[in-house]
Design goal:
The complex is a heterodimer. By secondary structure, chain A is α+β, with helices and mostly antiparallel strands. In chain A, about 45% of the residues lie in helices and about 15% in strands. Chain A has a three-stranded antiparallel sheet with strand order 1-2-3, with helices on one face. A three-stranded antiparallel sheet of chain A has the order 6-7-8. Chain A has a three-stranded antiparallel sheet with strand order 11-12-13. Chain A is globular. Chain B has a five-stranded parallel sheet with strand order 2-1-3-4-5, with helices on both faces. Chain B is an alpha/beta fold. Chain B has helices at about 15-20, 25-35, 65-75, 85-90, 100-110, 145-155, 165-170, 200, 220-225, 230-240, 245-250; strands at about 5-10, 35-40, 50-60, 75-85, 135. Chain B starts with a strand and ends in a 5-residue tail after the last helix. Chain B has two domains: about 5-95 and about 125-155, NADH:ubiquinone oxidoreductase-like, 20kDa subunit (Rossmann fold, 3-Layer(aba) Sandwich), CATH 3.40.50; about 165-250, no CATH class. Classes of the chains: A alpha+beta, B alpha/beta. Chains A and B meet through α1, α4, α5 and α6 of A and α1, α2, α3, α5 and α8 of B.
Amino acid sequence: MTRTITIDHLARVEGHGGIKVVLDGDQVSTVQLDVFEGIRLLEGLVRGRSLEDVTGIVSRICAICSHGHSITSLQALEDALEVAVTPQTRKLRDLAYHGANIESHALHVFVLALPDLLGHPSVISLAGVNPDAVAMALRLKKLGNTIQEVIGGRAVHPVNYVIGGFGKVPSTDDLLTLKKELSARLTDCERTLEVLRGIKVPDIVCEPIRCAALVPEDEAFFFGNCIELSDGGANKTIPVREYRTLTNEYLVPHSHAKRSANDHRSYMVGALARLTISGDRIGGMARRAWEELRLTLPATNILMNNIAQAVEMIYSVERALHLVADLLETGIAPESPLPYRVRACHGTAATEVPRGILFYSYELDSEGRVAAADVITPTAQNLNHIEDQMRAAVRQGVEAGVSDLMLEQRLAMIARAYDPCISCSVHLFRS
Amino acid sequence: MKPKIGIFGLSGCWGEQIVILNCEDQLLDILGATEIVDFLGGSSVNDEESPLAVAFVEGSVANEREEKQLRRIRERAELLVACGTCACFGGIAAMDADQPRQQIICQVYGSDGPASDWDIRPHRPLADFVKVDVAIPGCPMEKNDFLRATASILNGDIPQLPAYPVCLECKMIENDCLLVSRGLPCAGPVTTAGCGARCPQYNVVCIGCRGPVEECNITSLQKILVEKALRASEIKRKLRTFAAPALDRKEQGGSA
């Protein structure tokens, strides 16, 4: 006898998606994560647009990662045009990424995921019983937004990022404001730890997690030119220029999104993957959080991605403070954007945005118009992995005699653990 | 009794829901003054039936499913607020392309796969389907516009939003004019104000993300830009990035 577990419309995720699981007796026959976000075709729509216009368009792929989309797009254009940005620009972009990471992780951990762990349907009902924790999360979230506003000119869809630098470099006063805000939030990081220490992350699935992340080239944690794919002991390294050999995108009949697989197997990207691959760089309070929250890597429980996000959020507050102090000590220079020469060329870039690796690749014609664009978002890469983990959770749950209602809750929790951003339209599909 | 509120997202980038959640200093007050009963983005338990005092809707209408969803929201809501440029003007998914959308599908997704028979049209703004009571443009809408509009609505007023161009705001803060002094293709003269001329403040041209201001002279701006040695076809695409459906209507003599 077959039966189906369906979640028509997944709540507390960015965008529109649903889950369908079919069980044949105790055997799981189908696991589908459906994406029915309206198609926007942005990669096609930017064809023929000038290289100056394209970044302002692709930032609209996703609100919460708009700084990441903008900067990765610019870095792909700079790679094509052979523009090497100044150390100051690199540091300011790094700072913006830490701001984005603080904002995004504070939102996901506390507003979207924590209600699951504390048995609430939403942060609204959580605010009723624990207003202090919610107020603290909102302060941290605001800090991330303030950093993004100061560097990028707007929290959502930044305006200040241009090829070769910034429209306007932030002032010393701007950085002093950030320093004050960042210092004031360190106590909130401690409180975050207190709130999370009391939470037990449920063991709803136990399955090895294959991870991919960029290897940071220098101190900038979210930037690199090489991807590492963890495969038990045998790790694989792939240059960013050859990203297609990591993602190997293809379409599946049941779904609405291009999928990624390496050696025909899924992999996950995101905070948990980053810490698995480059976690040895984490020190300070973030390291203490890692230990106190009992994060053991490599993990076999995907829900630990929420804990990895909390650790990374604290790391980003500490790193941002360090970067601001460093910029103030060196002295901020009113640099103009670097010049470039328009010609037929192509370029590729990848960065780590809050949800994982984001790839951009452009081909430009001799007049500086986009001849081709390719964008691969973290969530598009994670879709196969989400399905694999859901499949394992259902199999293990059925073996343990878990009810269908409980399985349904677990499926939603697993999908949410990846912090999926279904709005990232370009590869995600069909009504 | 507190007014019942719904927050909905059609196709888009989730930007307006993020802006609402970005009102960190006011969020707990908003939760205190209203009852948010239907907000799939924030809650796994939602009341999808009861009448709503206000429905905030972001995103554009991509397909029949979303058209139905929008009509249902309209039936339930006393006031329907279109949030952001996608909802107000169609947004970037309604942008002009240099080739038919069906051809783009084949390029992005291959010509022989499951995508080949997908029916894709440019997205439409909410007002093409239902009556919109309040429109808050912006990509994304400005936090202050949302807060001001919400405060007005909760107090029984109809919100007053700027009906003048970004250019005016820019002049008032005495920015050097990017269009006149530097010959850059700035959309400030034809774009709805309310952002405080955000882009020119950063020495970056306005790209028209807030949609066309009610009384604007696009033909005249195009003429100036042609004089500044920009190609006419290029200018047209630039100006139609965020609000192509609204501009089509203007050309046909209607209001945006």
